[in-house]
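Checklist before submission:
- one chain only
- standard amino acids only
- sequence pasted in full

Submission:
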Amino acid sequence: MKFNLPPNVTADKLPPKVLKRILQDPKLMEQLSDRVYELLRDDLYRQRERNNGYGRHF
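Returned file contents:
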């Protein structure tokens, strides 16, 4: 089973029943973990882009 949630839906907006289901299903937990990893990776990439060049004015 896969949950396709709109991008603006966050964990605090999910019903407890859905969260419980995710925690009990290894496949859904893997999908959640993969998504969290993807978001963190993208955030780090954007931070590097923003900070590229700062302090390198020599």
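Reviewer check: The mean pLDDT is 81.
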